[in-house]
Amino acid sequence: MAYLFLAISIIGELIGTSMLKASEGFTKLYPTLLTIVAFVISFYFISLTLKTLPLNMTYAIWSGVGAVATALISVLIWKEKINTGSMVGIALIVVGVVVLNLFGAGHGEAKGSTETTSAIAQK
Fold first, then answer.
1. Is the model more confident about 102 or about 48?
2. CA angle, corner 61, sides to 30 and 8, nearest 5?
3. For the residues 61-66, what does the mean pLDDT come to?
4. Which residue, 9, 28, 7, 32, is CA-closest to 19?
5. What single-letter DSSP state applies at residue 109?
6. Cα–Cα distance between 81 and 67 in angstroms, integer?
7. What dihedral do alpha carbons 76, 60, 1, 36 form, nearest 10°?
8. CA 58, CA 54: separation in Å to the nearest integer?
9. CA–CA separation, 59 vs 90, rounded Å?
10. What is the pLDDT of residue 96?
11. What CA–CA distance (Å, rounded) separates 11 from 18?
12. How far is it, in rounded angstroms, from Cα 39 to Cα 79?
């Protein structure tokens, strides 16, 4: 279920970012309102995701997929140009997300760290 919430959050971020572009600096009412609604949905669902998945992995996926998909949207919908440097950067983001998922949080985690984190969060 956490990955479904994460997917919804990413979709909200993509819509929010696209509407942010369409709002032209918050000068257009409907894109501005859609920006706000989409980001509220995005943050709500990422907060639900964080109840189950670790923060560093969740944020890496959220921001990585968001950055790659936003770059694609900017080219396909907004007709913006992309250069070689941008493509290399996007590829490195994808590699980083994969590495975090394979070797990052939750892999070889020491016993008791969850209890320590819970105790800190309750204070």
1. 48
2. 40
3. 92
4. 32
5. P
6. 15
7. -60
8. 6
9. 16
10. 87
11. 11
12. 23
Helix and strand counts by DSSP (H, E) for the chain: 5, 0
Q: Token pair for residue 30?
A: 């409907």
Quickly state the pLDDT bin for 75 (edges 50, 70, 90). Answer: very high
The residue behind tokens 């257009």 is 28
Rounded CA-CA distance 37/15 in Å is 9
pLDDT tier, 116 (very low <50, low <70, confident <90, very high otherwise): very low
Average the pLDDT over 10-31 and give the result: 97
Residue 80 host element (H or E):
none
Q: How confident is the model at residue 122 (pLDDT cuts 50, 70, 90)?
A: low
Distant-in-sequence, close-in-space partners of 115: CB < 8 Å, separation ≥ 6? none
Query: Distance between CA atoms of 86 and 57, rounded to whole angstroms?
Result: 23
- Backbone φ and ψ of 81, nearest 5°: -90, 150
In the chain, helix, strand, coil percent, each to 5?
75, 0, 25
